[in-house]
Amino acid sequence: MRCIEFEKITKEVESLCIAACYQLPEDVLAAIEAAAQRESNPSAARILQQLIDNANLAADQRIPLCQDTGLAVVFAQQGADVAVKPPAGQKQATLIDAINAGVASGYEKGFLRKSVVADPLNTRKNTGSNTPAIIHHEIVPGDKLKLTVMAKGGGCENKSRFRMFKPTAEKEDIIAWVVDVVRTAGADACPPFVVGVGIGGNFETSCLLSKKALLRTLGQANSDEFYAAVEADLISQINALGLGPQGLGGDTTALAVMIETAPCHIASLPVAVNIECHSHRHKSAIL
């Protein structure tokens, strides 16, 4: 059994939170640059260039890419042979505790906006630490711990949708609905988008799949030829909407559409769409 110190995990999460909010991933920046090169609408091309300038400025000056530094969504893949070593003087500590401590520290030290309220409907008082984070914990083989932090903004998350289709639905039905979800999101979700689609599983699994899909490298097609073709159809139809960057018109409404799937009940066909804005912020590390 390999033990990883609580403090080491906390420090890594802290670093990931700050890096994610300051520096756009290379694949996302490359996708925006490519979109700017092929954009036929001059105004849209200028907006895309402004997004590129913003990303470069944020990285150079170590300031947030966006004022909405997001809800911290953390994917933790813990090897079965990994345990968390508690801090000195404590008998036990969990991985969840370490992650939340890292998020709180990262948002404080990085001067990142804290956007979590403790009670969703009644008092809506800010927790003051951007915790608790949304944590998806998975046990996998091995003796490593992989941590991925996604800073998920509220505007794009609010436009995400779920629908339970009849199992007799055709792929064209799914495509039409996903395209309509993106059309309805419009300028409110800050296009150009990265669109994650989860198909299968059950109610909650499809939604998680749609968010996991956002972690794939942009431009990486689904390994299944059928779903790769659906992704291609979706990106084509979404960009044909003409919403364009910031909803002001143009060829580039989405930078990528990525689908993840899971087996499901014979009576069900759950589909979820997770909308991500152009500031698609996520960072990973392996301990």
Overview of the structural elements:
The radius of gyration is 20 Å and the shape is globular. The strands form three sheets. The protein has a four-stranded mixed β-sheet with strand order 4-2-5-10. By secondary structure, it is α/β, with parallel strands linked by helices. It has helices at 6-22, 26-38, 42-61, 95-109, 154-157, 171-185, 203-213, 225-239, and strands at residues 2-5, 71-79, 82-85, 134-140, 145-152, 161-165, 193-201, 254-264, 269-276, 281-286. 38% of the residues lie in helices and 25% in strands. The protein contains eight helices and ten strands. The chain has two domains: 2-19 and 65-152, no CATH class; 155-286, no CATH class. The chain starts with a strand and ends with a strand. The relative contact order is 0.20. The model has no long low-confidence stretch (mean pLDDT 97).
